[in-house]
Amino acid sequence: MTSPLRPEISGLAEYTLTQHPHRIKLNQNENPYELPEGIKREILERLAVQQWSRYPAFVPSEQIRLLAAFTGWNGEGILIGNGSNELLQLIFSAVLGHGTSMVISQPSFTLYKILGKAFGADVREVQMKPDLTFDVPRLIDEARASHAKLIVLCSPNNPTGTFLPRAELRRVIDETEALVVLDEAYVHFGPESQIDLLGKCGRLIILQTFSKAMGAAGLRLGYGLMAPELAKELNKLKLPYNVNIFTLTALEVLLARWDEIKGWIEPLKRERARLHAGLQAMKGIRVYPSAANFLLFESLERLPRQVFSRLLEKGILIRDVSSYPMLARALRVSVGTPEENGEFLAAMQEAL
Ligand code: PMP
């Protein structure tokens, strides 16, 4: 029987993650701190008095209003998603198809390529420079040469931690005709957001998430910021009631109590610096600067998968990213609690 599926689906590499048994989890760039009890309780109490038998509001206007106040961006240009991944899929489905091209920088978040190919696009990959910074002139050349409809950039970039400076982003937007998606999943750990470019650039979409600094990956909540006219069009493709009342209620409480939550960002940045210094001091390790809550490092002598396995023997799970373009010797470790980071550094000494 011939497959009823589109041919590009059978050729796709799956987005997978093996969950090895572990004691210390430093493989998914999550927040190592759990939300305070009081915040969880407030979310649950607010949920208990709602009608679970009814659909959520058709337009989550109250949550959009709160996000507008939080981000400083016009609510009419805000879409809420079941994780920012859902919004990536939504945007790609609106822009890409057979005969379209999309440009991404590599190495980056693997979902961009998988989704782009799934929608039939010609995915053009531009490698970063050898120091793992963005190659902006080549990104622009590739977009222009292929008449790209979409450019997707991640800053701070997963898995390298690289921050794309504002002037360089501006060049990508000004010197191409593509819609530019900037994935700011790790923005709270970096120097600044590019939200204030939105007012000047109608072809820019910024994606942010509650999964990282905001400590709520399990809730699945992300949002996109863009020109209101663009949001109106993309909204046509959003599934009705895509975000459930649990997550919408959590959004209200997490934003109201953000001042309490955000206190964990500076300590995580200090821990990032400690991890960086610790890795840098190790013989046979090259560590890259990071503006995110993880570090990319290369193991120059021992193979990455051996380092990975030796850490796992001690219950420490990190990410072997050696299959990514340009990263044949690389591993990625998320910043954990001070105790977790201490154990990781000690285990690294022995793993080398
Ligand atoms: N973008 C990037 C760059 C990521 O690394 C991740 C998480 N791995 C996501 C988006 C996913 O975000 P969400 O949980 O909001 O779907």
Give keywords:
2 domains; 37% helix; binds 4'-deoxy-4'-aminopyridoxal-5'-phosphate; alpha/beta; Aspartate Aminotransferase, domain 1; Aspartate Aminotransferase, domain 2; globular
Structure overview:
- By secondary structure, the chain is α/β, with parallel strands linked by helices.
- It has two domains: about 5-35 and about 265-350, Aspartate Aminotransferase, domain 1; about 35-260, Aspartate Aminotransferase, domain 2.
- The protein has 13 helices and 13 strands.
- The strands form three sheets. It has a seven-stranded mixed β-sheet with strand order 2-8-7-6-5-3-4, with helices on both faces. A four-stranded antiparallel β-sheet has the order 9-10-13-12, with helices on one face. A two-stranded parallel sheet has the order 1-11.
- The termini are far apart.
